[in-house]
Amino acid sequence: MFAQRELSRQIVEAGGDYVWTVKDNQSTLRQDIALLFQPEEAVKGFSSALKEFRTAQPFNKGHGREERRTLTASTELKDYLDWPTAAQVFKLERYIKRTADGKTSIEVVYGITSLHPEQASPARLLELNRSHWGIENGLHYRRDETLREDWCHLKSGQAPRAMAVINNLIVGLVLHLGWTNLPEARRYFDAHPVEARRLVMRQFD
Q1: Which of 16, 67, 82, 148 is the most buried (most CB within 10 A)?
Q2: How many whole angstroms separate alpha carbon 78 and alpha carbon 181?
Q3: Alpha helices in 87-158 (DSSP H)
Q4: Extents of the domains making up the chain
Q5: From residue 73, how far is each of 43, 56, 70, 151, 182 by CA, in Å?
Q6: 99-144 pLDDT tens trace
Q7: Rounded distance, CA 105 to CA 95, Å?
């Protein structure tokens, strides 16, 4: 549902702002942004054209790895892109090195936001992007690993969607109760099925 044109418009009309990571399903938008950040080949005797780029590059070390994230933002496409209220685009490069074996990985993603530079610097865009994926990854990890959603073989009709809704409900209920460890909560309610039933039914009274 993310990086959709109409959703972007609705968010801004409601008084909010968006920060999207542009996926392959918006291929034209992604290509336009990627082209902006590609290095230009300078003609011999001439310098490359200066571009309005702003960059943040924090470095983190811990949990057995080194991580450098570089976010470069620009307003140069705001009047060019056919996208509602686009104010900035950005390129985010993630470089990760595992200290145990030296293995490295590099990931590049592109994004778009309605936030203007005075509202969101490159450092702020990094924070917003990281917060979003922290929430997203936390939800998917709980569903995939603890609730074993990836091992589910339901494929017919609306069954997969219904199971996803149920899993989201489970995660939401236990977090609402103050549990931070979903496996621990699952073991508790497995041992207290009457209390689990009471909890679910209370939400629908």
Answers
A1: 67
A2: 43
A3: 122-141
A4: 5-119, 147-203
A5: 25, 9, 10, 40, 37
A6: 888 889 999 999 999 999 999 999 999 988 876 554 455 555 566 6
A7: 6
DSSP assignment string, 144-185: IIIS-GGG----STTHHHHHHHHHHHHHHHHHHTT---HHHH
Find out whether 51 and 76 touch, Cβ atoms under 8 Å.
Answer: yes
Q: Give the closest residue to 115 by CA, choosing from 10, 18, 9.
A: 18
Collapsing DSSP states into helix, strand and coil, what is residue 39?
coil
Confidence of residue 2 (pLDDT cuts 50, 70, 90): very low
Selection from 102, 105, 135, 106 nearest residue 19 by Cα: 135
Query: What's the confidence (pLDDT) of residue 48?
Result: 62
pLDDT above 60: residue 205: no
* pTM for this prediction: 0.62
**How would you classify the pairing of strands 88-98 and 19-21?**
unpaired
